[in-house]
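Team,

Forwarding the record for the chain on the shared tracking sheet. I've put the sequence and predicted structure together so nobody has to dig through attachments.
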Amino acid sequence: MCERSACKQATVLVVDDDEFIRHATSLRLASNGYEVLKASRGDDGVAIAKSQQPDVIVMDIRMPGLDGLAALRLLRTDPTTDAIPVVMLSASPENQNAVLDSGAQFFLQKPYSKESLLSAVQAALDSSN
């Protein structure tokens, strides 16, 4: 394990149209040492992922416009973003198979605990190394 100052701070992109969830998720991640980028729409999330190259993306499925599954498919077809691990969020457990089949590494059912969020993000980081 390296000293915190010697380690690269992992960047997590949080994409959720619900301002409360986006803010709460961002605070949970930031308070645990992650740098956080935020987007409220799928198309904005894809654009930020392409330009900023986060280490992990945490994204909701249900959003107006470009939903999370469509955004995930775009990320997986672009060579600049296809290797970024994605944790998908949904209140509907029946979405889990579609999420994993579309290329997400992890699925979290809302509501989720701080511990499950942090575990999923860490597992996503570990899977990309």
